[in-house]
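Lab notebook page, bench 4
Experiment: in silico fold of construct C2
Operator: M.H.
Input chain length: 488 residues
Purpose: comparison with the prior construct
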Amino acid sequence: MSELAKLTIHTAHQKLKKKEISATELTTAVLDHIEKTEPQINAFISICRDQAMAQAKQADSIIFKEKNFPILTGIPIAPKDIYLTKGILTTCASHILHNFVPPYNATVIEKCLAQNAVIVGKTNLDEFAMGSSTETSYFKNTKNPWDLSRIPGGSSGGSAAAVSADQCLASLGTDTGGSIRQPASLCSVVGLKPTYGRVSRYGTMAFASSLDQMGPLTKDVTDCAHMMNVISGHDEKDSTSIKTPVPDFTKTLNQNIKKLRIGVPKEFFTQAIATDVKQCVNTALKQLEGLGAELIDISLPNTEYAVATYYIIAPAEASANLARYDGVRFGLREQANTLQELYSKTKASGFGAEVKRRILIGTFVLSSGYYDAYYGKAQKTRTIIRNDFTEVFKNVDVIAGPVSPTTAFKLGEKINDPLQMYLSDILTLSTNLAGLPGMSVPCGFGDGNLPVGLQLIGKAFDEETLIRVAHCYEQATKWHLKKPKITT
């Protein structure tokens, strides 16, 4: 394998600045590595060799002329196939969009392309981001680079696997209930779900509009900070985008965490959490304490209601958002004699089982006679969960605990048991319900040499502190330097 594919964004940027490498050489190395490893990992839905090489040549012309150029210039990235990309197939891992090529880019993609980033491909995901294992994809099952018999997490499983396997220098994922943090944890990469409203959702296919948030998956925390600098900011095209100043997230990277108050929720360490996961996270907490942080026992008493609340609100919003896939304007169109038959046949053949399940649940909880009993009650519970965080953050700066209750499970182990699959997100869902930023940083390996992530949760729009804590921990431990052994 070419050493170039192993580079981080910041190390590659320095080499490009010094003219030690070209964007064309870097992109070629990454594409060649994808070609060798993709048969084992299945991280990509589309590989864009021709477009990527053209973008790399354009980046090289800028690098040749300018001494200082943006951090992503010439850097190979791979967005999750939920972002609209002009002229590039965008499927959301669904049969209903198997032939859809959008006419415009998502705002986040535009921001990356404005810096002349190189898109090497679009990564696999659970269909319409509905899943925790990337097994609901219409196209393929992505495999965990650390153990090819196991899932990479979901729904951004292709993104996490691609970054872990050096198939790109960074990826863009989405997080509706843990879909950046959980796969980041299971694949030993860094993943950050920003505060709701920090990053534009425009041009990203909606799952649950009050929960979805876009964010980066990277090889280390420094790259995460750089990616956040690029993608953050208000967007007039997104009505939920917040007008709030965007700091330089790299400025706090080297600050210490002395006297920082870290809350440790007792609800994150129940019997449902695997012993090896607890051991890794407890060791990480002790290391943070050793770096000068103060650990404070806290309680988030309504955490147990997060799963039930989420799986009422998210399907309700999904049932409305997915109504647009009707066979009329774009995507799959089945032959039919009437409009009703067109809708019925197109959706029946276009959507997979999990998507249909959530549409049915969502339609039910919004229906007359059940709205108040389910959806109305779930929204009230959501407020109670958010208030738990508000109270806790009066006394702590950051919350820390596990990301996932277990390490990566076997392919096929939970796909036929929706309840067990939904419980995989029990530690991440409440962060989305409260709209707060959450992060996963590698913190060791459990049984079978499987990765474990440390979850950090912050106050609204305080991603700076999460990045600061994560970087301080990362520099003290070096877990991020370990790589999976992939035979090619």
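Observations: The mean pLDDT is 96. Residues 198 and 232 are 6 Å apart (CA to CA).
Next step: discuss at group meeting.
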